[in-house]
TrEMBL record:
One of its GO terms (molecular function) is nucleic acid binding. Residues 3-122 form the DDH domain. Gene3D superfamilies: 3.10.310.30, inorganic pyrophosphatase (n-terminal core). It comes from the Bacteria. It holds the Pfam family DHH. SUPFAM superfamilies: DHH phosphoesterases. This is Putative 3-to-5 oligoribonuclease A. Residues 215-281 form the DHHA1 domain.
Amino acid sequence: MDPDGDCIGSSLALGEFLTRLGKSVQYFNEGPFGRREIKEFAHFFHSGFSREHRRNKDSAVAVVLDCSTLDRIGSLADDVADMTTAVIDHHSSGRDFGDVKFINPSCPSTSLLVQQLIESLGEKPTLKESEYIFFAFATDTGFFRHLGENSQASFQLVAKLVEAGASPRRMYEQISSGVSLESRQHLGMLLNRVESHFQGKFLYTWENLQEINSYGRTNRDSDSLYQQLMNVEGVEILLVLREEEPGKAAGSIRTREVIDAGKLAARFGGGGHARAAGFLSDLSVEETRKQVFPVIEKLLSSL
Ligand SMILES: [Mn+2]
């Protein structure tokens, strides 16, 4: 459920390959297909099992891709639970399901695992499969930006996709174009009201319910906002408070290198990763701000 580009691209690449081997493939995903870059693929996927799907379950195998736990497939889990299940994944945690597993947490995308599976059978990805694998890889790696040292194996795999005809330029356009003007204007509003505190180490912005509704939640582009602000010189912590419900706030925290965002969010009942985390507050944006600012000030003064 709530799939990203890697989940969708990996599913379609594997499905194309299995179809090429003469297998009959059906795609499932509960959705929603909220991310702009995957919307065009939504029509390939069933959101649940039909009566006919259930009738054919005994002769079928389920392959779960890019999910670290079975509950990540949402309501489909009930139908998949008693099926023979294969798992292909690259998450480092979770996972207590699956009869056959192909899991490699050091692989930057599930799609590159699908590519290795295809190659291990002595085959090469077709152009279409290559494009799905590249698309999935590019969305999970921020178009190569999240790759560090020791990523040569990934580049070697991707080189083969380009050799098969996948165009990085076309893939980039597919992933990044098509944004709405409203989403840029929304971004402008949030950037315009950014406050800089504690010698520029802390950036803060916010929005109220009325603004959230007037720009439309589908026009939200949080990734761009975080990216723009985390590039600002000297910033260590970014906090965005949003009035998602009347009188309640949702906080998003991003940190650069020193401060653990997950630990910081945990102090307000939330959680997440070292660089990205979030929390929900029963207080208004203004009250939440008053609660969080002193904690951040103390953290920064100890640096
Ligand atoms: Mn992934």
